[in-house]
Amino acid sequence: MSRLAPSILAADFNRLGNQIQQLEQNGIELLHIDVMDGMFVP
User: Fold this and answer.
1) pLDDT at 42
2) d(CA 2, CA 25)
3) In the chain, pLDDT over 70 holds for what percent of residues?
């Protein structure tokens, strides 16, 4: 079975809490978070 992990970078950060709550209500179990340190990403 495939699992879907939406990326947090696609979120509206002004509504982040609401959007995460929507994901949970729709059965999303994984959330992809990239850590950007300014060295490997601009």
Assistant:
1) 66
2) 19
3) 98
Spell out the domain ranges in the chain.
1-42
φ, ψ dihedrals at 29, nearest 5°? -105, -20
Using alpha carbons, list the distances in angstroms from residue 18 to 2, 21, 24, 33: 25, 5, 10, 17
Dihedral, 14, 36, 33, 12 alpha carbons, nearest 10: 20
Rounded-to-integer distance, Cα 23 and Cα 1, Å: 19
- pTM for the full model? 0.63
* The two three-digit tokens of residue 8, written as one number: 């947090």
